[in-house]
Amino acid sequence: MELFLQTLINGLLQSGIYALVASGLALAVGVVGIVNFAHGEYLMIGAFLAWAGSAYFGIDPLLALPLVALAVFGVGALTYRVSIRHVLLAPELNQMLLTFGLGILLQNLALMIMGGNTRTVSTPYQASSLSLGELSVGGPKAIAFGLAVLILGALYGVLYRTTLGRQMRAVAQNRRGAQLIGIDVDRVYLLAFGVSCALAAVAGVLVSVLLFASPTVGLVFALKAFAIIVMAGLGNLTGVLWASVILGLSEALVQTYVPGGGGWSDAVFFLMIFGTLVWRSYQGAFFRRAT
Amino acid sequence: MSAAASMPASRRAAEFRWTKLLPLALFFALALAFPFLPLGDRREFLLQIGFFTLVAGILALSWDILARSGQVSLAHAAFYGLGAYGSALLLRAGLPWGLALPLAALLAGGVSLILGAVTMRLSGMYFAIATLAFTEVLRTVIQNLPESVAGGANGMLVPALLGGNSRGQYLVALSLLGLTALVSLAVRLTRLHHAFAAIRQGEETARVLGVSVVRYKLAAFFISSALAALAGGLYAGKTFFINPLETFSLANSIAPLTTSIFGGLYTTLGPILGATVLRVAEELLHNSVKNGYLVVYGLVLMLSILWLPRGIVGLWRRGRHGGDL
């Protein structure tokens, strides 16, 4: 029973980061209408910035978090201006491939500059842990989860309580309609894309503390984010939270209870993406709306 | 995808002239002459680059054939890998290369029919992600199978193609690229071309026009995957050693896609030219930069989409798109 509860807690804590990455991606897909295959690379940039801040200036990654978020927001906004903006009306294939190219470019630039090694960030609270009766929770994990919940709360607050958030949701629902009632769609796109990248970067900072920073660290998280938004259904932002929890829990369960689980958990997760996509495609309506 | 869509098929067919095959014929003539040139000290190395360029050409062109039916796949690494592993396992079972390679291609084609049938209703990003997930599942399965089956994560050894004769290997690869080009031309010049184009431009419309979408989409999958498996088998026969991480790597799905777009989508010459330019550029970079030489692929892909959406072939073939040779 303890093992089971421990597994559930680990899975839940893991899902905080998944939700951060996936909400960012859902924002790009839902509002801007761009499937950003380079999403994981912004996470990677965030992780490296956190590592650099800690290694060269001794700044705690969690304190550097707002700065990293702001910096990557800028990078995202720039990306939108110089590339994404020019393919908004192009066929979906071209948009997809453009971000794909961007992802390969960023990842390999990182490889060129930083080399293929992983870099860990050491923090004073690294080895700390909280214990609740028989269960124990790693300190960094708990902090990361708390931060993820806070930031997601703020994001949903902005989306549902402010004018900008309403504008974003209006654009997500109907691009032309939003334009007709006087919303500056281009500005909304820029902000949404920037925020999307910043969310990935925030997740990256947390990943640098929990895991490590490396040029390829983003890919796995981006794929999981795809799985989550596909499970949630496009543009469904609250669904993202539930889907993240489901993915986090099922991963933890496989890792604990399937023999040799570490190796197979990837397969399970990809099977989930595959199965969900195929299952949804036979349900019909969902995909017609999306394309 | 846009300008060509409005052009009636009959007019495009009427535009066909045999002279259009000249650039392609020129490429093959040059490629055939290459291994007989006095290449000097670096002969082995140059032949090896040539060989992998041809393999990249087969992979890219086979991807393009599938893309013509509107299915932008990220599963080509899977069929490449199936070709490599299929050949390796059949060779281990005692079959000669001459049987192992075609059988592996048929195996990959068979698997592709299953994938194609299951993903039939997906399109765009959903199709791309589903095919990517399929590849990863396949890789993880091979990686986690007991080592006695297919070597697990450590990979397995493969007997060299033609006992390691470089010129012979190059010529085998060249003839298989020739076969792929012939298949591609056949697709272009038969009714398959019109069916694929119709499906690509609008599946519903194609169905209304009486195109049996299911059959043609599966046909595209089968042809394309069998050819991709040939490329994978060649790769295995040249490197003697295959492992799941490298053979099923995402890079093997990205390379054919980038190559085709850079060279010119929906053409026969485009992917081949693209492969030649990109592979040579990659080799040059590979020597000077240790890590991250794939940067070229990312950059080329972005720049092609932004400024050269019709690829290098489109540079001199103005005004037509989507139905060129």
From TrEMBL, chain A:
GO biological process: amino acid transport
Signal peptide start and end residues: none
Regions that span the bilayer: 12-35, 42-59, 65-84, 96-115, 142-160, 188-213, 225-249, 261-282
Superkingdom of origin: Bacteria
Coiled-coil regions listed: none
GO molecular function, a single term: transmembrane transporter activity
Record membrane topology: Multi-pass membrane protein
Protein name (database record): Branched-chain amino acid ABC transporter permease
Native species: Deinococcus koreensis
Lineage: Bacteria, Thermotogati, Deinococcota, Deinococci, Deinococcales
